[in-house]
Specification:
Layout: H1 9-19, E1 27-32, E2 38-47, E3 58-66, H2 75-89, E4 95-96, H3 104-112
Length: 128
């Protein structure tokens, strides 16, 4: 369901997760249609810190995707509601997420589901 991913990218992440070298996500929730076809998922983790949050046990949306033919039909909302239920079960009082700064559709979707934008950051890396 990640159309822009490089071939094998997620297979590698899954292998690293099961090998114990990748710690997140710790929960993945799936949505499927009445014919058991995948329509979306949300990947969740627990973080000690997330931008704009006040608690030190924050449920975090690491990845969230809804297939194009399922968008606007409540699939994304249902996934986030299920994520909220999972987060409450983990003792969390906040759910955090992020989106790329140019992804206005994602920002609007987050806001429509009750998220509040708390800031924008620019991330950098340097290969050593």
């Amino acid at each position: 369901l990640w159309p822009d991913a490089e071939p094998g990218e997620h297979a590698d992440a899954i292998a690293r997760y099961f090998a114990g070298t990748l710690r997140e996500p710790i929960m993945v929730l799936f949505a499927e249609d009445g014919h058991a076809r995948p329509k979306g998922f949300v990947e969740l983790s627990l973080r000690a810190y997330a931008e704009g949050c006040k608690s030190d046990n924050v449920a975090y949306v690491e990845g969230w995707y809804v297939a194009p033919d399922a968008r606007g039909r409540g699939v994304g909302r249902a996934l986030i509601e299920a994520a909220e239920d999972w987060a409450r079960g983990q003792g969390c009082t906040e759910l955090a997420s992020d989106a790329q700064s140019k992804n206005v559709v994602s920002a609007a979707t987050h806001e429509a589901l009750g998220f509040s934008e708390v800031g924008q950051i620019r991330c950098f890396r340097k290969v050593l």
